[in-house]
Amino acid sequence: MASSVATPLERQFGRIAGITEMTSSSSLGSSSVVLQFDLNRNIDAAARDVQAAINAARSQLPPNLPSNPSYKKVNPADAPVVMLALTSDFVERARMYDLASSVLQQKLSQVDGVGEVDVGGGALPAVRIDANPTILNHYGLGLEDLRAVLNRANANRPKGALADEKQTWWLSSTDQLLKADAYRPLIITYRNGGAVRVGDVATVTDSVEDIRTAVWPTASPPCC
After folding, report:
1. pTM for this one?
2. For the chain, which end, N or C, has fewer CB atoms within 10 Å of the first or last residue's CB respectively?
């Protein structure tokens, strides 16, 4: 992350006028760059320059990023003004986090005077595939064979085009599989006249992106 994501961004950020300090930190799957501006610099104009720098660096970033880099106008020394906890006896944690990040966070960010809204204590929904190397080896397969099948099943490419003498329209739709039940029947290869499917060599479950993140606002964890 430091060399492939943070470094291209830092090169572009270094061209912005009024920066007094730039620090970055990278870990597995994430990079954070903090820019400190001169007090005389207009923060809204600086934010536009930051967004322009992100756009300029996009072609130098890895093509398989799950989302485009984003920025926030905030003072890192500020403490949260309000902290909200969402609980439910019926909705699982992954769905709660999805609602908080896609609905509640967006609405709170639009409130006048709000500089930053962070969502924590969970992770977005995801399908986790835990492959069994012993079974893969039994069928003469490797992890790369499994990865290739999953990659093909989630292709996001134009499906065709409609054209006349003046214009062309590309037809596009997503092939993303969102539930574990859709991954299990995928065929990896054929052995002894039968199909070897993802469910035969791996445990496929509906889960979250990060299974090691959780917060409980009460003394005991929620029921689901």
Report:
1. 0.55
2. C
User: Which ranges in 154-188 belong to alpha helices (H)?
Assistant: 180-183
At 130 the pLDDT is 92
Element (H, E) at 147: helix 143-153
DSSP string, 78-89: PPPS-------S
Q: How far apart are CA 217 and CA 124, in angstroms?
A: 19
pLDDT surpassing 70 at residue 166: yes
Instruction: List all residues 6 or more positions away from 51 whose beta carbon is below 8 Å from its beta carbon.
Output: 71
Which residue, chain included where needed, has tokens 């600086």?
46
Residue 46 near residue 16 (C-beta atoms within 8 A): yes
CA distances, 100 to each of 71, 96, 123 (Å): 19, 6, 10
The residue type found at 7 is T
176 CB-near residues (< 8 Å, 6+ apart): 154, 156
Q: How far apart are CA 127 and CA 57, in angstroms?
A: 30
